[in-house]
Amino acid sequence: MCCDSKRRFLLLYATQKGQAKAIAEEIWQQAGAHGLEADIHCISEMDKYNLETEKDPVVIVISTTGTGDPPDTARKFVKKIQDKTLPPDHFAHLKYGLLGLGDSEYMFFCNGGRTVDRRLQELGAQHFYDTGLADDCVGLELVVDPWIDGLWLALKEALQLQKEKEGMNSTVDAVSSSLSTALHAVDELKLSAEVQNLKLEDEGARGSDVLSQKLGDINLVAPARDTEPSLVHSVPPLSQSALNIPALPPEYIEVHFQDTQGENPHLSSLTSEGITFEVPVTKAVQLTREDAVKTALLLELDIADTAFEYQPGDAFCVICPNNVSEVEELLHILGLSEKGDDFVCVKVKQGTKKKGASRPQHIPERSTLKFILTWCLEIRAVPKKAFLRALVECTSDAGEKRRLQELCSRQGASDYTHFIRDSNVCLLDLLHAFPSCKPSLSLLIEHLPKLQARSYSVSSSNLYQPGRLCFVFNVVEFPAGPSRPVSRKGICTGWLAELVAPLLHPSKNSLDTKGERSSTEKISIFPRPNNAFHLPADPSVPLIMVGPGTGISPFIGFLQHRQKLREQHTDWEFGETWLFFGCRHQDRDYLFKQLRCFLENGTLSHLEVCFSRDFSTAEVAPPKYVQDILRLCAKEVARVLLKERGYFYICGDKKHMADDVSDAVVDILSMEMEADKLEAMKILAMLREAKRYLQDVWS
């Protein structure tokens, strides 16, 4: 902690995918221009800071992962502060400001930050600056940028107040006056997470961390006849505006090519989750017809010879590579096609101005270049503004340079959201759109995030199929668009589909001596247990399952498990089971027609299905969506939830299904209880709190 104590503040970040870290680093970079010094650490590095004795203001940037959990890097910290033996004044000396990152597409928005914020308050800590909650659904920068702008005044007020309290000659009146001023300043800086309430008008440069670019300094080459903006072209007033752009992030990585040979690291070294398992794919089935809108696949893995354990309802992660052709294309653009198999050594650049610079944990110190681009870096990631700012310096064409500056500027926030973020533009798209941009390999390592393993719900029961693990997924398709000239498949789902193609379409060479399909393909996985999305511990408790499309996946495991329990324990009492399933067409994407078997053997009490795109000649149109069938079964749903204290499970798409189902349940409770909606919403909140209304959703 070498910072000047008079101007120092402690800056902690807890990140899952790198966004919280990037924002914390931007705060650190801007601090100097405001006469402050940030002592920055990952919140997991608890040996490098001590909140129990911290006297200076603390700034925390924290993301949310999973179903509202703090990121993995914050687990130990959260566990420590959740200690129930801590007294209520444990952090009474602490002054802090917190910025939470989340996605309102998910139920527990910013819950990682809220959890830490709430617990610090319970332990006596006090805000010196109001909490900000940034929403990745609409753009983090809409809250992050103004929150950072207001941070500096609040920090200076807090430091001044601290100095006056420590000064022996300060009068009580002076302290009171300073406190009043600080509180007034904080009140004026209150931020709303509601986007419509944000005022993003530029109020001038923020100091030396911002470059004010005058129009006359750049040679604009945009044709006057273009009246619509695009990824590569802007229109007035943006094209004629002076720009406030972020400070240039300091370089901190250097890459050296080596003549020596060797072996690449094992894939298990790419994850911090502990042990990984390399398991063979033993079966692949296409569940949808060729003319279905989406292609759904079921894969079966052999885990018999491993220590992998799971329960129905759990998830697991697949370690996947980037697309081979995209890696080759990137190597070509970088001018490194001939060096893909060469070994490189990645080190921190000597003399870098980046504080606490270190080689990213997901980058091996020594491996081939192709290994880094294939297994370590998320080359499909949407570039952050700091990356765009760095790419400006690698661009030779004046018009392209100006447009990149616009896209990372405060004035170009709307264009960034529309043409970069919402269009899912990636690095390759940018390099095609701005051909004079030639970034270095070290710049990519500095700015591209870690290639994350992809999570899938288990669709089997180890009791029903010992030594086997099944999962179901749609092959994700990203269509071409104005900002992305080519269509792409999902990184993991596209790779898996290609990997199991021999199992789906066997040739003579892929058949074993018995004429059966054989495969030696293996994938690396690791468990990601779900703490709540499990069958009730008491089998007599009834349950309702809602899973349209591939959302049915975990419920297949539920039913398999329940069927086996019924066979093994004939004297047990089992509660009734309801399953609500929906898809587009009965003959194209009814994923598990064998659900009838569960119905026939009594494992499943009620099966309700709907087909949203099938044409009907009936006088009364059949229900199209699962929420419609739920409303038709309102009395039964209310009975299970209210009278029989049953469980309600939802799995599937958050935006287009889970919210509608939640609304339907509120309507059902309101109608059957003869209560207003507010009372019904309170009941639903109580069900969530009691872990009887459970979701496994994605956006």
Report on the structure:
Its EC number is 1.16.1.8. Helix content is 31%, strand content 18%. Among the domains are: 157 residues, Flavodoxin domain (Rossmann fold, 3-Layer(aba) Sandwich), CATH 3.40.50.360; 155 residues, Rossmann fold, CATH 3.40.50. α4 packs antiparallel against α5. The chain has 699 residues and is α/β, with parallel strands linked by helices. About 8% of the residues have low confidence. β20, α15 and β21 form a beta-alpha-beta unit.
Provide a compact summary of the structure.
The chain is of the alpha/beta class and 699 residues long.
Please tag this protein with its features:
699 residues; globular; 20 helices; Rossmann fold; six-stranded antiparallel beta sheet; alpha/beta; six-stranded parallel beta sheet
CATH topology of one domain: Rossmann fold
Strand content: 15-25%
State the total count of DSSP E strands.
24
Integer-rounded radius of gyration: 28 Å
Q: SS-based structural class?
A: alpha/beta
Largest beta-sheet characterization: 6 strands, parallel
CATH class of one domain: Alpha Beta
- Give the CATH H-level superfamily of one domain: Flavodoxin domain
Looking at the overall shape, the CATH architecture of one domain is: 3-Layer(aba) Sandwich
Query: Kindly state the mean pLDDT as a whole number?
Result: 87
Figure out the total of helices: 20
Helix content: 25-40%
In angstroms, what separates the terminal alpha carbons?
A: 41 Å
Q: Specify the overall morphology.
A: globular
Low-confidence stretches: 168-225
Pfam families: FAD_binding_1 (PF00667), Flavodoxin_1 (PF00258), NAD_binding_1 (PF00175)
Enzyme class: oxidoreductase
Catalytic activity: 2 cob(II)alamin + A + 2 H2O + 2 H(+) = 2 aquacob(III)alamin + AH2
GO cellular component, one term: cytosol
